[in-house]
């Protein structure tokens, strides 16, 4: 799953390149709501809690915006690093994001038990470190990856409260 998060973050570079210098904003609440409504509907068909799935995908969207904002800042300070080509957001970039969305939904379904376990967070952060290394993420993309993770595991306050040292 964390490999998919990393792939999605690397696509944020293309999203930023497609939007930079245009009237298309980084924040696009209408488009974001379309994505969230879609994954909520698809979650039901997979037997997943739509609220959990929406939270995970909201984090993915916010993680992508971390990368986009960082790139905008870099490009504003270093015009020579600005993209020289503008990818087609609708024909090139969104289909790649849609493919990852489908794969992420399958991964969420396949990991439902693990995500609810007490070992989820250490396993998730270990997997994220391996994904970051494997995808050669830079500091900006690492910040995005960190932002992508919070909603993957069941929250501690959703678990039964246990005395310290007991499982």
Describe this structure in words.
- The chain is mostly helical and 167 residues long.
- It has helices at 2-19, 29-45, 50-77, 89-110, 112-116, 120-134, 139-148.
- Helix 1 (2-19) crosses helix 7 (139-148).
Domain count: the total is 1
Round the Cα radius of gyration to an integer and report it.
17 Å
Query: What's the CATH architecture name?
Result: Up-down Bundle
At the fourth CATH level, what is the homologous superfamily? Answer: Chorismate mutase
- Form type: globular
Helix-strand string = HHHHHHH
Please provide the count of β strands.
0
The helix content, as a percent range, equals: 55-70%
What integer is the average pLDDT?
92
Distance between the termini: 25 Å
Strand composition percent: under 5%
């Amino acid at each position: 799953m964390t490999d998919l998060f990393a792939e999605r973050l690397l696509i944020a570079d293309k999203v930023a390149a497609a939007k930079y210098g245009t009237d298309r904003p980084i924040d696009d609440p209408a488009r974001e709501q379309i994505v969230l409504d879609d994954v909520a509907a698809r979650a039901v068909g997979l037997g997943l809690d739509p609220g959990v799935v929406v939270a995970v995908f909201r984090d993915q969207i916010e993680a992508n915006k971390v990368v986009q904002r960082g790139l905008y800042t870099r490009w504003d300070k270093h015009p020579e690093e600005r993209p020289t080509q503008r990818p087609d957001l609708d024909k090139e970039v969104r289909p790649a994001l849609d493919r990852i969305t489908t794969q992420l939904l399958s991964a969420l379904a396949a990991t439902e038990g693990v995500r609810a376990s007490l070992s989820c967070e250490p396993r998730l952060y270990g997997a994220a470190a391996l994904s970051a290394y494997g995808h050669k993420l830079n500091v900006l993309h690492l910040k995005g990856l960190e932002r992508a993770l919070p909603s993957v595991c069941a929250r501690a306050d959703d678990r039964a409260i246990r005395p310290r040292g007991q499982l």
